[in-house]
């Protein structure tokens, strides 16, 4: 199913022409499809029917309240990495008992907030964090439910910036140390060991690294059992990739099947933390061509979206397909699609063959994950509006920021 389709010569989101959205809400604008979001969640769940599982959407991929609320209504839990994300999930009516809290730098305040909310589990990433959590929970007269995030030293074969399961990453407890740290956890009065957790990276396009990691985790679970430490749930993390260009990530059904096969005969609950896979292809960034600038070596199309709106190309050299909203026939030209920000790294796409004129609308595809969530105000640019299309209706789920608000918290010296 593709909800972003050309109909009568114009790219649509569901039944709404992107030209209509641009004229109503201006550009740059993030446009999401409710159908695509819903479908991605139910496709992910389809292979898991009948198993004891919880799908925790990784909030950092797209934390818009409307998206969190939609997933909450569909029964999702949430993987959070900060107190801010906890507050968002609660504001979006997420169920605290379906929240897992990951992240290497949890502060005591964040721990307190999560304990007060009554979250499902802390994914603890170091022995020091474990000790602090025990102290914080003790001071509140509470018991903190924990998993250790174990680093299995598995190569996820993805971009180094989004690979998290290797020895040299900052994430998780080293596999060799896991047993010892679990024994420490089991002996702490305000810690209850509930599970084990592992997240090896993002935009993973092969099944093998997931299975390799899971095999190691299962070995650990068995070793823990012989020491009398019972593991009630296994959190296999997120990381399933999406198709940006020609990648062929594992299909949800095959991924689920492979994981469930490893868990046959085990009485454990399974947790998943998908982010990108649920939202990435459910959104586009709509932008307008401001200027066409032919230069000696290259032709530039300068658009009104920039690296502050969508950082992935600048940060990871990531590829996003860029489509004309009203494609013209005729000769195409190779364009560098760049933004107005004063950085040479401010590009959205290289060498794109398009037939463009100033004023044209472009859709930066696959922008639903790590798009708006990584946006900044660099160059004092107001962040884009966000809308969700539902059939032939459009809902503004985040207004475009106002310039005056961008410096409203600042003061002169006198
Ligand atoms: C970012 C993250 C995820 C989600 O990763 P995706 O690649 O978007 O699925 C899941 N778990 C943890 C701990 C993360 O940091």
SSE order and pairing:
Blueprint: E1 4-7, E2 10-13, E3 16-17, H1 18-25, E4 29-33, H2 34-46, E5 53-58, H3 65-73, E6 77-80, H4 83-91, E7 99-101, H5 108-117, E8 121-124, H6 127-140, E9 144-151, E10 173-174, H7 178-187, E11 191-197, H8 208-226, E12 233-235, H9 252-263, E13 269-272, H10 276-279, E14 283-294, E15 299-303, H11 312-316, E16 322-324, E17 333-338, E18 347-354, E19 361-364, E20 385-390, E21 393-398, H12 403-406
Parallel strand pairs: 4-20, 5-6, 5-13, 6-7, 7-8, 8-9, 9-10, 9-11, 11-12, 12-13, 15-17
Antiparallel strand pairs: 1-2, 2-3, 4-14, 14-15, 14-19, 16-19, 17-18, 20-21
The structure holds pyridoxal-5'-phosphate.
Pyridoxal-5'-phosphate binds next to helix 10.
Structure keywords:
414 residues; alpha/beta; Lyase, Ornithine Decarboxylase, Chain A, domain 1; TIM Barrel; 2 domains; 12 helices; globular; binds pyridoxal-5'-phosphate
Structural commentary:
With 414 residues, this protein is an alpha/beta fold. It is 28% helix and 26% strand. It has helices at 18-25, 34-46, 65-73, 83-91, 108-117, 127-140, 178-187, 208-226, 252-263, 276-279, 312-316, 403-406, and strands spanning 4-7, 10-13, 16-17, 29-33, 53-58, 77-80, 99-101, 121-124, 144-151, 173-174, 191-197, 233-235, 269-272, 283-294, 299-303, 322-324, 333-338, 347-354, 361-364, 385-390, 393-398. Strands 4, 14, 15, 16, 17, 18, 19, 20 and 21 form a nine-stranded mixed beta sheet that branches. An eight-stranded parallel barrel has the order 5-6-7-8-9-11-12-13, surrounded by four helices. A three-stranded antiparallel beta sheet has the order 1-2-3. Helix 5 packs across helix 6 (127-140). It is globular.
């Amino acid at each position: 199913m593709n909800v972003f389709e050309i109909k009568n010569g114009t790219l649509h989101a569901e039944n709404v022409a992107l030209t209509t959205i641009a004229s109503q809400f201006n550009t740059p604008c993030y446009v999401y499809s409710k159908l695509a979001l819903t479908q991605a969640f139910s496709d992910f769940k389809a292979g898991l029917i009948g198993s004891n599982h919880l799908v925790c959407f990784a909030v950092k991929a797209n934390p818009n309240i409307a998206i969190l609320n939609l997933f909450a209504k569909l029964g999702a839990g949430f993987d959070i990495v900060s107190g801010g994300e906890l507050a968002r999930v609660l504001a979006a009516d997420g169920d605290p008992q379906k929240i897992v809290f990951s992240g290497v730098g949890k502060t005591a305040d964040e721990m307190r907030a999560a304990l007060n909310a009554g979250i499902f589990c802390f994914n603890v990433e170091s022995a020091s964090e474990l000790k602090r959590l025990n102290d914080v929970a003790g001071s509140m007269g509470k018991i903190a439910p924990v998993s250790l995030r174990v680093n299995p030293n598995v190569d996820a074969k993805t971009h180094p910036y989004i690979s998290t399961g290797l020895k040299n990453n900052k994430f998780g407890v080293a596999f060799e140390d896991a047993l010892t740290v679990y024994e420490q956890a089991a002996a702490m009065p305000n810690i209850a060991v509930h599970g084990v957790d592992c997240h090896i990276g993002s935009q993973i396009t092969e099944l093998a690294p997931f299975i390799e990691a899971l095999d190691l985790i299962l070995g650990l679970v068995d070793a823990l059992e012989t020491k009398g430490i019972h593991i009630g749930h296994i959190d296999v993390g997120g990381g399933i990739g999406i198709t940006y260009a020609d990648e062929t990530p594992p299909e949800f059904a095959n991924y689920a099947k492979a994981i469930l096969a490893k868990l046959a005969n085990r009485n454990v609950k399974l947790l998943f933390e998908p982010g990108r896979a649920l939202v990435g292809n459910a959104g586009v960034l709509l932008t307008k061509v401001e200027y066409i600038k032919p230069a000696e070596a290259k032709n530039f199309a300068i658009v009104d979206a920039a690296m502050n709106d969508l950082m992935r190309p600048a940060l990871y050299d990531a590829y996003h397909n860029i489509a004309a909203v009203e494609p013209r026939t005729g000769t195409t030209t190779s364009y560098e699609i760049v933004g107005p920000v004063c950085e040479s790294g401010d590009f959205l796409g290289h060498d794109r063959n398009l037939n463009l004129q100033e004023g044209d609308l472009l859709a930066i595809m696959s922008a639903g994950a790590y798009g708006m969530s990584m946006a900044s105000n660099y160059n004092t640019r107001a962040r884009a509006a966000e809308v969700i299309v539902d059939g032939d209706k459009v809902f503004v789920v985040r207004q475009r920021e106002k310039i005056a608000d961008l410096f409203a918290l600042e003061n002169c010296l006198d």
